[in-house]
Design brief:
Order of helices and strands: HHEHEHHEHHEHEHEH
Structural class: alpha/beta
Shape: globular
Helix content: 40-55%
Distance between the termini: 38 Å
Length: 208
């Protein structure tokens, strides 16, 4: 059996295979890049039917990254998957507090999830940032509540929590009420690899 071993060739061939699934969607070139990386990360062309990109999302995300914004994640798996070296070239850092001891103890005391406390702890730092949520619907609900009750306005929300309890509902609320640009996938699909893939698609959008 012959198979491709060179990393870039594997990625290029993957994108060639994905391309036909997107031809009928009338996507802009930048949207094709985001769609392709999501499908590549998931190994699932069915994602093309549920991806939703706000009209200003890609432009807002790229501008924020180029300005050196930080990225805030709900879980370590998202943080780990983001290309931190590329982000550092713009001056940004990736942040996650899910494993912080104070966050954990506060969450236990309040009877809420650690991801909710983490977003509250980030607080004003979320303003002008990119938020990447791939696992915890409660983190997305919390950010939406924060925006409703404060002047905090992230530059972009990547909201793709996965699962059967609250995930679909949190993404519906994001699409229906979010006052800032967002990228999501409707329904139960999503996950940390998808959140990281979307973030990396934006980071790779402009070569340095």
């Amino acid at each position: 059996m012959q198979y491709i071993t060179e990393p870039m060739a594997i990625e290029e061939r993957s994108m060639e295979i994905i391309a036909p699934y997107l031809t009928s969607l009338n996507l802009k070139p930048e949207e094709i890049k985001v769609f392709s990386r999501i499908i590549h990360a998931a190994g699932d062309p069915e994602y093309s039917k549920v991806i939703e990109i706000h009209a200003e999302a890609i432009n807002a995300g790229c501008k924020a990254l180029e300005a050196g914004c930080d990225i805030f994640c709900d879980v370590e798996m998202v943080r780990t998957g983001i290309n931190k070296r590329r982000l550092a070239e713009y001056g940004g850092t990736v942040n996650c507090l899910i494993g912080d001891e104070t966050v954990a103890s506060t969450a236990k005391e309040l009877g809420i999830t650690r991801s909710m406390v983490a977003m509250r702890t980030f607080g004003e730092r979320l303003h002008g940032s990119i938020i990447a949520i791939g696992n915890a619907p409660t983190a997305l609900f919390e950010v939406l509540n924060m925006m409703k009750n404060t002047n905090i306005r992230p530059a972009l929300i990547i909201g793709v929590p996965v699962g059967f309890v609250g995930a679909s509902e949190s993404k519906d609320l994001l699409a229906e009420t979010c006052p800032v640009p967002y990228i999501t996938v409707r329904g139960n699909k999503g996950g940390s690899p998808i959140a990281a893939a979307i973030t990396n698609a934006l980071l790779y959008m402009h070569k340095r």
